[in-house]
Design a protein that fits this description.
Elements (H helix, E strand, L loop, with lengths): L5 H18 L6 E7 L2 E5 L4 E2 L4 H4 L7 E8 L2 E5 L18 E5 L3 E8 L10 E6 L6 E2 H5 L7 E8 L2 E5 L11 E2 L4 E6 L9 H14 L3 H6 E7 L8 H9 L6 E11 L2 E10 L2 E12 L2 E11 L22 H17 L16 E2 L9 H4 L10 E8 L2 E8 L2 E10 L2 E11 L14
Parallel strand pairs: 14-18, 19-23
Antiparallel strand pairs: 1-7, 2-6, 3-7, 4-5, 4-6, 8-13, 9-12, 10-11, 10-13, 15-16, 16-17, 17-18, 20-21, 21-22, 22-23
Length: 436
């Protein structure tokens, strides 16, 4: 592990060994139960399981488990029960934090034996676990330690975040460390390392649920440009909207997320004031801060064709093919959707092989075959973003904004999702930045 200063690894190791020695002691076999809510949960195993295979640890909730993620050595590892052989997260242990996404509330139960071994914290962000079977007041846990390298400790327990800041303990709402919870711990050598831009986007979207403006304050630029025409422009307007409850009764479940250079694109399942929406969000970053935001909303529509507006693969793969896949999709969109040359579709899509998530169309290519050459669906392709097998095109069709996402496999377009939104009339727009 490469660190900016050689002394930090030693300091981090001393910190964590002391912290966990204060909290945990070895014990005999102990049963645990972790309550999980629908959606994302940040957890850890209170005890070390005898069988560390992730499929064995999560067997009792397998039918509800969508995916499980760990962050180690600066890289994400993922497990999904649908594709265990293609998952790179194969084992699970105490001392590590895990993001777990489930389809409905469940209880993760098991048995293990505690350990008081220390865990090395590297400079930057560490996703760690809490061992043991009793909670510890965070101030007491850290009372004998030099906190100079602790920037912050974060916990997520739906619907929002709690944070401990050693520089401002009176304004911290994370008061204790608890069994079954996972924690982001930020360690610094004097600088302020930050999460990657994809995690910042997640945190900002999470603030729409919680009303906690910390992530918006920290990760949105003072020069923030808003392209959601129903919202006022600027960072302060964003903060005020979250703080005053404009997003109350809002939930955000990110189904897909990918990064294209300085852009983060999310495809999410929103609930806003009781109404379900499918939403694309696009964030542009400069110098680690969000400087611009676009989005597209569409009301959820039940489908009768065997798919939904959001289901299907979620994992980003084939990242080495990003440029080629973006070119393939851009050429298809321009040739067929803009120029209306539908007879060329077989250059991009195999006949009959096309899974559709647009509620107006069944899967397959019959609808494309019925399109006459010269039929132009879009006026212009505005942007194309992609990472690996997922590519999003942002387009305009008259007074409508259209976000299409395609999944590419072996140089062929095989699956499609979209969100279509009516652009607000100019006299109803809350900012002058334009939809695109």
């Amino acid at each position: 592990m490469n660190l900016k200063k050689p002394g930090l690894l030693k300091q981090s190791k001393v910190f964590f060994i002391l912290l966990f020695a204060l909290i945990f002691t070895p014990c005999a076999a102990f049963s645990y139960e972790i309550d999980l809510t629908e959606g994302w949960n940040l957890i850890s195993l209170p005890e070390q399981p005898e069988n560390v295979n992730v499929s064995q640890v999560t067997a009792a909730i397998e039918n509800k488990l969508i995916s499980m993620w760990a962050y180690k050595d600066g890289h994400w590892l993922m497990y999904t029960p649908e594709n265990p052989d293609f998952s790179d997260l194969q084992t699970i242990s105490s001392g590590t934090g895990y993001w777990i996404n489930i389809s409905e509330a469940a209880v993760l139960s098991g048995q293990g034996t505690g350990t008081s071994e220390g865990i090395v914290l590297a400079e930057g962000w560490n996703l760690v676990g809490f061992n043991g079977n009793s909670q510890k007041n965070i101030a007491d846990a850290l009372s004998d330690l030099d906190n100079a390298n602790i920037v912050s400790i974060w916990s997520f327990k739906g619907p929002g975040w709690e944070v401990y800041n050693p520089d401002e303990p009176d304004f911290s709402d994370l008061a204790s460390l608890k069994p079954g919870h996972g924690y982001w711990i930020n360690i610094s050598d004097g600088s302020i390392p930050e999460p990657a831009i994809d995690e910042k986007a997640r945190l900002v979207l999470a603030s729409l649920e919680s009303g906690d403006t910390a992530a918006i304050t920290s990760y949105v630029s003072p020069d923030f440009i808003q392209h959601n025409l129903s919202l006022q422009d600027g960072k302060q307007a964003f903060i005020d909207a979250a703080a005053t409850g404009m997003y109350s009764d809002t939930t955000v479940d990110i189904e897909r997320l990918f990064v294209d250079g300085s852009y983060v694109i999310t495809h999410s399942d929103y609930t806003i004031s009781g109404e379900r929406k499918v939403v694309f969000d696009i964030f542009r970053f400069e110098n680690g801060l969000i400087v611009e935001h676009w989005d597209n909303y569409q009301t959820w529509v039940p489908m009768s064709f065997g798919t939904t507006m959001l289901d299907g693969p979620t994992e980003v793969t084939d990242t080495e093919l990003t440029a080629a896949n973006k070119t393939l999709v851009q050429n298809f969109a321009q040739t067929c959707l803009v120029d209306g040359q539908w007879s060329s579709y077989t250059d991009y899509i195999d006949d009959g092989v096309y899974t559709q998530h647009n509620p107006s169309f069944a899967s397959g290519t019959n609808w494309i075959k019925n399109m006459a050459d010269g039929t132009k669906l879009y006026d212009e392709i505005k942007y194309v973003f992609g990472e690996g097998n997922f590519v999003v095109a942002v387009s305009q069709n008259g007074s409508k904004s259209v976000y299409d996402m395609w999944r590419v496999e072996k140089n062929r377009i095989v699956e499609h999702w979209d969100v279509v939104e009516q652009i607000l009339p100019e006299d109803q727009q809350q900012n002058s930045n334009g939809k695109f």
